[in-house]
């Protein structure tokens, strides 16, 4: 085991020394660390059972932090007033992707309860900007386009979670015959979680402002406090039977819109820490889950994944942007760059204990195979597609995609992403 850890540590150190150069190629960090995990899984140098337990822990921590910090960087007023494209993609495109994904997968999963098919579609709906890094960080792609993709990927995890929890419970009921008190379920999962999140976010935000006003704290300590608030929301909701992930997401929304730039940590979450957490999750995924997922990669599962990537997401985004000033070219671009990343894998792991073993194995296989396939396809296509799109938009001359927008001085960093623009300043 020591030898395996030594290889991982040495490889990670070596990767950081060429990471900037690789970022300009089709090779992405998620691709590299998934491949490293898969390669080491064949050597026996690292125990896969322990790696799977480690993945659950890393995945849970990553999801809580990701939901809180991404939500905290969202200016709700600006999102409602100016961000037409991401709002449409979130409020119309996400539900459309779940609906279209359910209809598409239903033909490939005969005998499955409708709720289980919808669960698969919901897990495949969230997107991850980290796998399209060459797009969201590429200055040749218009700011408005990059920021719309960043806003969408940052918020759709939290918005998809209630649907995933709902369909997981319905699927469990359909398979096991258990009866669920839906009033009690809604109160606990969709009521208690947000209430805890609101309380933690508002109280935490006001206390931080008070401490900041009286010079009782500093940027470093505020950052630690922000992470502690995310954990407080998650654990507090879990303790009373609510959903901790929803609580963390809501707490981030409330906290971020109260402090509004005073806690620099939520905008400048150190990329070394954020990247390390992401790399670790992808590595553990490659080590613990990808080998078994590959064994279950049937033509049926492959068809579901490819239809989700090439048909469901593009069609849902195209329909959601009808009536906006987004050009057909931009709709296609948005539709393709919806890579499936950590959220897809983490949500699949999250709901495994809630559904029957008969469903758990294929659901996890679909999710994990979707992640590595998306990492490969979107990683390889990100750089050339960004150049092609930028050239096409440039040839169009003055167009909505290239309209100037106000840019705030506050930078933005999200887990798994290296975007340095503040979402609250985007004029979509």
Folded structure, characterized:
With about 425 residues, this protein is mainly alpha-helical. It has helices at about 1-20, 30-40, 50-70, 75-80, 85-105, 115-125, 135, 145-175, 180-215, 220-240, 245-260, 270-290, 290-295, 300-320, 330-335, 340-350, 355-395. α3 (about 50-70) packs across α10 (about 220-240) and α10 (about 220-240) packs antiparallel against α11.
Summarize the structure.
This protein has 428 residues and is mostly helical. It has helices spanning 2-22, 29-41, 48-72, 76-81, 84-106, 114-123, 133-136, 143-176, 182-213, 219-239, 244-259, 271-288, 290-295, 299-320, 328-336, 342-351, 357-396.
Number of helices: 17
Under CATH, the topology can be stated as Na+/H+ antiporter like fold
Shape category = globular
CA-CA gap between termini: 50 Å
Can you summarize the main beta sheet? none
Q: Class, according to the CATH hierarchy?
A: Mainly Alpha
Low-confidence stretches: 405-428
Q: Can you count the beta strands?
A: 0
């Amino acid at each position: 085991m020591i030898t395996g850890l030594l290889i991982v540590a040495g490889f990670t150190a070596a990767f950081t020394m060429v990471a900037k150069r690789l970022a300009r190629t089709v090779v992405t960090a998620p691709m590299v660390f998934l491949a490293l995990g898969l390669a080491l899984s064949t050597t026996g140098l690292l125990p896969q059972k322990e790696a799977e337990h480690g993945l659950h822990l890393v995945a849970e921590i990553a999801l809580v932090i990701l939901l809180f910090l991404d939500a905290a960087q969202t200016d709700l007023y600006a999102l409602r007033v100016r961000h037409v494209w991401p709002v449409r993609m979130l409020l119309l495109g996400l539900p459309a992707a779940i609906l279209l994904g359910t209809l598409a997968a239903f033909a490939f999963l005969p005998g499955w309860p409708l709720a289980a098919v919808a669960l698969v579609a919901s897990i495949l709906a969230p997107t991850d900007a980290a796998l399209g890094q060459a797009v969201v960080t590429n200055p040749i792609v218009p700011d408005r386009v990059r920021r719309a993709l960043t806003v969408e990927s940052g918020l759709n995890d939290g918005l998809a979670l209630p649907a995933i929890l709902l369909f997981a419970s319905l699927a469990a009921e359909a398979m096991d015959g258990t009866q669920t008190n839906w009033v009690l379920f809604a109160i606990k999962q969709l009521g208690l979680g947000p209430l805890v999140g609101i309380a933690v976010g508002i109280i935490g935000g006001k206390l931080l402002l008070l401490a900041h006003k009286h010079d009782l704290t500093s940027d470093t300590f505020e950052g630690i406090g922000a992470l502690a608030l995310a954990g407080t929301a998650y654990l507090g909701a879990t303790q009373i039977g609510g959903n901790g992930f929803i609580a963390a997401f809501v707490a981030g929304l409330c906290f971020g819109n109260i402090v509004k730039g005073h806690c620099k940590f939520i905008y400048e979450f150190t990329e070394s820490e954020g990247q390390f957490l992401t790399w670790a999750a992808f590595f553990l995924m490659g080590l613990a889950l990808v080998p078994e997922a590959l064994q279950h990669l049937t033509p049926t599962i492959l068809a579901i994944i490819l239809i989700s990537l090439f048909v469901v997401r593009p069609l849902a985004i195209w329909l959601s942007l009808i009536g906006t000033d987004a050009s057909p070219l931009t709709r296609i671009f948005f539709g393709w760059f919806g890579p499936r990343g950590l959220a897809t894998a983490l949500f699949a792991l999250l709901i495994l204990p809630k559904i029957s073993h008969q469903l758990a194995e294929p659901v996890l296989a679909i999710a994990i195979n979707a992640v590595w396939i998306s990492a490969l396809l979107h990683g390889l296509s990100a750089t050339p597609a960004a150049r092609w799109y930028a050239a096409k938009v440039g040839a169009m001359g003055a167009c909505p995609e290239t309209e100037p927008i106000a840019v705030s001085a506050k930078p933005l960093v999200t887990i798994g992403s290296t975007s340095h623009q503040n979402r609250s300043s985007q004029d979509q």
